[in-house]
Amino acid sequence: MEISDLPSFQNLYHHRAHHLNLTKTRLIPTNPNFFFSSKNHFQSQHPRRTTFHSIVCQTRNNEEEGEKLKPVESGNSRFRSKSQDFVIKKSKGKARMIWVCSSCGNSSSQWWGSCKSCEAVGTMTQMSVSQTEFVEDKSRKSWIVPCKTDGFGPQRLTDVNKGVNQLTWRIPLSGVFGAEVSRVLGGGLVPGCLVLVGGDPGVGKSTLLLQIAAMVAQGGDSGGATPVLYVSGEESVEQIGNRADRMGLGIGTEDLYLYSSTDIEDILEQAQLLSPRALVVDSIQTMYLKGVSGSAGGIMQVNECTSTLLRYAKSTDVPVFLIGHVTKTGEIAGPRVLEHIVDVVLYMEGEKYSSHRFLRSVKNRFGSTDELGVFEMSQSGLQAVSNPSQIFLSEQHFDFDVLAGLAIAVIVDGSRTFLIEIQALCTPGMPVSGSVTGIPQSRFNMIIRVLMKQAGLKLQDNAIFVNVVSGFKLADTAGDLAIAAAICSSFLESPIPNDVAFIGEIGLGGELRGVSRMEKRVIAVSKLGYRKCIVPKSAEKSLVSLDFRGGMKILGCKNLKDVINIVFGSN
C-alpha cells in the first residue's frame, strides 16, 4: 500500500491546514476529530521525503455508520477506511549502523575489506541510519516523470517523434565558442537533459558553464533573450558577478540571473518562479536536500539531490548543468550511480601551467562520445581554437633540421584530425631517472622494449624522457610510430626533416600495423604542406592512388628497421 492510495491524504494537509497550530516539535490539532504529531516539520510540498514509522488511520466516531477500521497491511499498523478523516502518527525508530561503499553506494550490514558490488578496496564507511520505512508516492518509483500524453501506457516508436523537427529540437549555441561546445554535446543542447561537468580544481569548469549560461541567456541563433539561472554553493553572487565582469559578460546578459544557495528545495522554488531556459548548479557536492541523512557531499545527499534535479529537468524540459568535484585519481567524487543518473558526462582536462583546455565527452545519450573540444584560457575566458594543430606544433617546428628528438604524429580524436608534436630526449644515465608526459606508461615501456629487441637500439643505459606538446593526452595507438621515431632521433642524434609525418601502430614484433581512418589522416597531413608521410606497408596501396595537395609522397614500411633506414639513412 502506498501513501497515494490513502483517500484524500493530499487534501488532509492542504485543506485542513487552518485547523492546525504549528510548533517547532509537533503539529497540534484544534479539531478533536484530527490528530497529527511529528518530530519534524511535515513537508507538504515534498511528500516523497516524508518517512513514517507507523501510520494509523482512524474514522470519526460516527454511530450512524458504525464503521470499523480494516487493516490492509501488517507490520506497520496501516489502516484504511472509507472516511476521509485520518489520524497520522509518526513514531521514532531505533538507529542502526550500516556500512556503505563510498565508490558505488552499495550498503552492507557488516564491514568488508572490499565492496561486494564494485570490488573497490577500503571504501566501506560506517553510517548511522534510523529504521524507517520510506513511504513514497507513485512518482518515487522512477527518476523521470511519466510521458506527457493523455495515455501513460507504451507508445509506438513512430508516434513518439511525430511533429518533432530534429534540426530545431536542440537549443543552438552560437559563435565559434558555441560551435565547439555543440560539437562535444552532439549538435546542441537537448531540452530536459542533465549534464555533469567534471575536472581538476582550477581547470575552468565554472568559467565554461558561466559562458554557456550567458550564451543561452542572450538567445543565440534562435534570437530572443530568455532567463537562465546560475546557482552557486561555493561563491557569493558578488564574486560571480565580478568574475563575469572580468570576462566581459556584463553587456547583453540582462537575463542571466545569479543565485547563491545550497538548498535544493530553495533552488527549485526560485527556478519555478523564474521559469528559466537553463539551470546551472555549481557544484552538486555542496547541495543538500532536507529530510535526507548525511551532510552535503555525502553518498545519500549527492544521490538524492541529483535525482531531484533530474525529475525537474525531465518534467520542465529545462536543461540542467551540474559541476562535479573529482578525486585524486581524476574520477567524479561521490557514488558511481551519479554518472549513471545523468544524461551527459563531460571531463575538462588541462595542464596546470598550460593555457590549453580540452573538453571530452565520456557519456552522451544524445550524441557521440568520441568528440573533443579544444579551448584556450585567456583573460576574457575560454576561447575556442579553430585549428588545433597550430597549438600542438611548437615554435621549433620549422627548426627540425637542427633539433633532434622531434617527430609529428597524426591523431584522430572524434571527428577531428590533429597533428601533434612528440618530443624525446635520451641521455646517458640510469633508466629509472626518465619520465613520460602525455602517453600511458605501459605503452611507453612496450615501445622501448621493441626498439631494443627488434631495432637493435641499446637504450638500456639511457634515461629517456618523452613529452606530448601542450598537455595533450595521447591515447591513439597511431602515435606509436612517431614516439619511436622521436626516441630514435634523439638516441642517434639525427634530426628528422620538418616535412615528414608518421602514422602507424607498433606491434611486439616490430611490425607496423594499420590504423582506422587512414585516408582522413593522410589528407590532413597533405593540407598542412608536408611532403612525406610514413605509413604501414599494408596501407600504402590504398593511399597511393589519392591526389594529395603539393604532391606529397606516401612511404610504406613493414617494420621499425625500414623506418630507421628511410628516415635516418646509414645512421
From TrEMBL:
Query: What domain of life?
Result: Eukaryota
Supply the name of the protein: RecA family profile 1 domain-containing protein
Domain RecA family profile residue range list: 153-326
SMART domains referenced in this protein's UniProt entry, alphabetically: AAA
> What's a GO biological-process term for it?
recombinational repair
Identify the keywords attached in UniProt to this record, alphabetized.
ATP-binding, DNA damage, DNA repair, DNA-binding, Hydrolase, Metal-binding, Nucleotide-binding, Stress response, Zinc, Zinc-finger
Pfam families, per the entry: AAA_25, ChlI, Zn_ribbon_LapB
Q: Does the keyword DNA damage apply?
A: yes
Q: Which organism is it from?
A: Papaver nudicaule
| InterPro entries on file | AAA+_ATPase, DNA_repair_RadA, P-loop_NTPase, RecA_ATP-bd, Ribosomal_Su5_D2-typ_SF, Ribsml_uS5_D2-typ_fold_subgr, Rubredoxin_2
PROSITE patterns xref list: RECA_2
Q: Which GO terms describe its molecular function?
A: ATP binding; ATP-dependent DNA damage sensor activity; damaged DNA binding; hydrolase activity; zinc ion binding
